[in-house]
Every structure is written in C-alpha cells, then in structure tokens.
Structure to design on (248 residues):
C-alpha cells in the first residue's frame, strides 16, 4: 500500500466516524427539563381552564370590539357588546334604555321606571365609579311574573353641573335559573345551563363593566329632554311589547 492510499483510507475512516456520531446525536430526543415541562403543563391547563370559564360564564372582555351608544343630544356615551344574552336569559331591550334627567326630577323615578325590590320598595343604591372616575349609584330591583324573573340594574350618573343620566339594564330569565333549580328547562337541553347559571359572572359583572365605560362629553351642557328618549317602565312584564321570549 502506497502513502497516498493510506492517507485516503485515513480520511475516509475519520469522516465516517464523525458522520456516524452526528447521525447518532440527531436521532436522540433532547429531553425537556422536568421543571420546565411542569411549568409548560401548568400554563396549558390554566389557559384551557380560562377559556372554559369564559364560555360557561359568558364573560365579556373584548371591550375594544364593543359598540358605542351616544344619546340623541350627544351629551353622554357608553360602550356595550353587540350581543348580550344566553339560551336561558336575555335583555328585554338592547341596547339598554338610557335617558337624560334634568335637575328638577328624581333620577331614579325618571330613569329607572318602576324599579323596586322584593318588598315593593325602591331599593337602596350602591355607590361606585366609572373607569374615568365619574361617580354613579346603582339600583338593583326585581319582579316575577308567569314564571319569569325580571332583574333590573339601573345606573344613575350625576352630571355635577346639574341633571343626571340613567342607564337601565333589564334582564329576563326563568325564576329558577341561577338559584339551584331548572324550572321549565328541566329535561331539556338547557337544564344544566339554567341550573348552573352564575348570575354574577354572566350578567352582573359584564353589566358593571359596561357601566364603567360611561362618560359625559365635557363639550356639552345638560339640556335634558326626557320626552326625546322616554324610558320604558321596567319590571312590569305586560308592558313589554317587544319582549323576547326566553326558553321553551
């Protein structure tokens, strides 16, 4: 064997060695550290749980995609989703009734209609503030008729310079939904939805989020005209001419 042949054989042998080593390393699966894998699994579980909760509760988070309601005089505005409701509950009117009230009127009576609690009295208000720091008072009332529950959430916003505005959300549902029963939905495809309804997460919290977007346009002054946007009397089922039937 001459010198040239020996060199070629050596080069081939070395190349074959490195090629075999490279193939071996590529064929081996690089393990994920146990700690990193645990974190990854937890993140996936949390994400899936969050998505399931959002679907089940009907929570609304994409406020940037909401519509904007502006009164006819362009004095106030607020945001609301295009669709709001479920199979076992729905608003009696959408978007909700919103009115201007001048300084000489009772804003609760003028803006919230016949709202009352289960004792027949005007409910006590709950104070709060919008995202922009505007003070409001929320009045929650309810009434039942023909197996249906009418829940009213009326937000009254003080203009400060005189007058106020009121936005009244009225939700119709079966009297059993969200209170451990299934009522007319028993034995139907909506039985579980009615029984497991979380009224706070599905209805009250999203309504509060809508109310938090309310704002007065500072460039205008209040010249209230309650006849221009007459509020619909709430919590009296027979008076809803455009009422949607909920459920079976």
């Amino acid at each position: 064997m001459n010198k040239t042949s020996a060199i070629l054989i050596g080069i081939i042998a070395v190349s074959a060695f490195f090629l075999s080593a490279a193939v071996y390393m590529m064929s081996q699966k690089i393990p994920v550290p146990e700690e990193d894998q645990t974190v990854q699994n937890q993140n996936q579980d949390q994400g899936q749980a969050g998505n399931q909760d959002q679907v089940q509760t009907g929570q609304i988070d994409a406020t940037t995609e909401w519509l904007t309601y502006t009164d006819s005089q362009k004095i106030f505005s607020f945001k609301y989703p295009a669709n709001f409701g479920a199979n076992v509950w729905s608003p009696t009117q959408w978007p909700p009734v919103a009115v201007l009230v001048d300084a000489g009127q009772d804003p609760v009576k003028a803006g919230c209609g016949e709202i009352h609690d289960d004792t027949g009295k005007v409910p006590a208000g709950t104070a709060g503030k919008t995202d922009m720091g505007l003070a409001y008072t929320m009045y929650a009332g309810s009434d039942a008729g023909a197996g249906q529950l009418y829940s009213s959430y009326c937000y009254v916003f003080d203009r400060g310079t005189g007058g106020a505005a009121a936005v009244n959300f009225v939700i119709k549902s079966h009297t059993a939904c969200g209170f451990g029963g299934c009522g007319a939905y028993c034995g139907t495809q909506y039985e579980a939805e009615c029984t497991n309804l979380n009224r706070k997460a599905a209805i009250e919290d999203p309504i509060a989020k809508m109310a938090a977007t309310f704002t007065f346009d500072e460039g205008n002054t209040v010249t209230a005209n309650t006849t221009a946007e007459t509020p619909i009397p709430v919590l009296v089922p027979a008076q809803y001419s455009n009422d949607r039937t909920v459920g079976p």
